[in-house]
Amino acid sequence: MKSKNTINRRDFIGKSALGVSGLILSSVLVGSCTDHNIPDPNDPNQNGSFDYGIASFDPTVNSIILWTRVTPSAGTQKVTLSYKLSKDPSFSSVLKTEMIDALAGDDFTVSIDISGLDSNQKYYYNFTIVNTSTVSATGETLTLPKPGERSEVKLAVCSCSSYPAGLFNVYGAMATSEADVILHLGDYIYEYGEGQYGTNDDTATLGRTHLPKNEILTLEDYRTRFKQYRSDPQLQLAHQKKPFICVWDDHEIANDTYKDGAQNHNSGEGSFAERKQNAIKAYHEYIGIRTISDPKIYRTFTFGDIIDLHMLDTRVIGRDKQLSYTDYFNSAGQLDAAAFQKDWLNPTRTILGTEQLGWLGAALNAGKSSWQVLGQQVLMGKMYVPAELLIGITQIVGEATALGSATPATFQKFQALLLALTTIKARFLAKDPSLTTQEIARISTVLPYNLDAWDGYPAEREKVYAMAKGKKLVALSGDSHNGWYSDLTTAGGEKAGKEFATSSVTSPGFEEYLGTNATSLAGFEQALALLVDDLNYVDASRRGYVLTKFTNNQVIAEWRYVSTITTLNTTTTTGHQETITNL
Is 45 helix (H, G, I), strand (E, B) or coil? Predict the structure, then answer.
């Protein structure tokens, strides 16, 4: 078999599709098949260790991707590994074994796509360095069910794991949860350097300073950062115990990435295209994805007749540059609303790109399962807030960024604003006839809170809702570091679906700017849920994940939170639960 350098992913997909009639086949996505000459027992290249664990990715009804990375001896260009696959944790009966070369050109990572497996089946696997006693941990994985084989599917949804921000207790909690599969919606790593975003008072004490110390730019930088994250024992345990389905967000490349640039990339950092290429290569070395080409990670997974899961790329492949309010303020500090609205509502602005949007339309149309589920990065629900509140939040964030915390006077002003707006909104909902036109305008003059989310691309959001019309649509979202539950509604107010958005693994939420006072945070959460029409629930300060349990007739979503990320504790509490039966 050719190496990854001489065969493309389309060829691999074609080869892996040959797994039929009980024949278990494999395709090497990263690494290289050996010529099956067993290495010399005295070969010094065969020294090494499995310091970064094992993992499985992208399960289907008959296939799974197995992954590992070997730490080689100095100067080595190739280490020959073997893997074993079994239905039994003791490997008393081995279904598949094969030798693979871990190559320096792939940072000694290997990803093997194994097909021809039984559906709805648990499997066990491990790796060995050939001619040594060095064996990896035993991994557990599974294949997806065919229609009728399962009555319930359980997905753990997570995103945003900043290494310096704290311990990965959320990964530890998901590892021991009842989830069948972990969905990682991006920001698996962060690109910042030592002392930058994510760093806090506990970073040094916990020994979680970013490596390399600089902001990552080169291929070796990205590889080093992935190795640091994958050295974490709780992340290793999650990968060992559960198969992952992943998409990237922005920080796998740089903050607020779009198709040809990023907020956190400047001309002094060289070519963005080269940086993106480095990041994508490292991502595919450390995250297994079954896709036709490296940049195109959108794909569908079918869980029996219960879920069609469409994993999207709202970040890299097609996204137009984000709009910024600062570009629409005049010299007097007033927003040019007409100019902003013209650009904001431009029907050609895209977050998916034409090709991916067409693919999604076809996938939704073809989807026959009870639920059509979007696994994607950024908030989809409308987060339209009163213009006054947006200005207030912007001021809080600006002062906290510049000074470490907003001033007491700014906090007091913000609290007064929240009280005034929520009082008006409560009176409005109660149909208070004494409300003035000016008061109504204060709560009805709204602007999208986050232009980096779907709110910045409203015309394309409407196209997606139209494509999903008549389907039971659920969006699973990450990116924001806070927990959310929202109605998905069209511009005309029609119901389109529901959104369950997860908090982060460690990255800070609103508490970074609003402080940690429980009373103040609770007041902010209640105010936001009242003032934002489509928002039903928000958690502004806790770290955790969402466990979703799908049946043909309902979905139960639980927002689960850990109590701390500064000491090892994987116990979770359920902060909120929703049961959806009818959309």
Answer: helix
The model carries a pTM of 0.95
| Backbone phi and psi for residue 521, each to the nearest 5 degrees, phi listed first | -65, -40
Strand partners, 114: 26, 64
Nearest to 298 by CA among 284, 280, 283, 317: 317
Comparison of pLDDT for 390 and 14, the residue scoring more: 390
- Spatial distance between the Cα atoms of 107 and 78, rounded to a whole number of angstroms: 10
Q: At CB < 8 A and 24+ separation, what contacts does 226-231 make?
A: 226/189, 226/282, 226/283, 226/285, 226/286, 227/52, 227/69, 228/163, 229/161, 229/163, 229/188, 229/189, 230/52, 230/53, 230/69, 230/286, 231/51, 231/52
pLDDT range class, residue 406, cuts 50, 70, 90: confident
The amino acid sitting at 326 is: T
Q: Which amino acid is at 168?
A: F
Domains and CATH numbers, the chain: 1-143 (2.60.40.380), 146-321+348-380+453-506+543-583 (3.60.21.70)
Residues in the chain, how many? 583
pLDDT tier, 35 (very low <50, low <70, confident <90, very high otherwise): low
Residue-wise pLDDT tens digits, 98-151: 999 999 999 999 999 999 999 999 999 999 999 999 999 999 999 999 999 999
Q: What is the DSSP letter of 500?
A: E
Cα-trace Rg, the chain: 24
Q: pLDDT digits over 333-388, tens only?
A: 888 999 999 999 999 999 999 999 999 999 999 999 999 999 999 999 999 999 99
> Token digits for 118?
């039984």
Say whether 576 sits in a helix, a strand or coil.
Answer: strand
Q: What is the DSSP letter of 217?
A: -
Kind and range of the H or E element at 392?
helix 387-403
Q: Which residues of 289-328 are buried (b: 16+ CB within 10 A; e: fewer)?
A: bbbeeeebbbbbbbbbbbbbbbbbbbbbbbbbebbeeeeb
DSSP per-residue codes, 74-134:
TT-SEEEEEEEEESSTT-SSEEEEEEEEEEGGGTTEEEEEEESPPTT-EEEEEEEETTSS-
Residue 139's identity, in one-letter code, is G
C-alpha to C-alpha distance for 413 and 408, rounded to whole angstroms: 9
The strands making up 139-142's β-sheet, listed across from edge to edge, are 32-33, 94-103, 78-86, 122-129, 139-142
Both tokens assigned to 431: 């149909």
Among residues 354, 314, 362, which one has the least CA distance to residue 186? 314
160-197 pLDDT, tens digit per residue, is 999 999 999 999 999 999 999 999 999 999 999 999 99
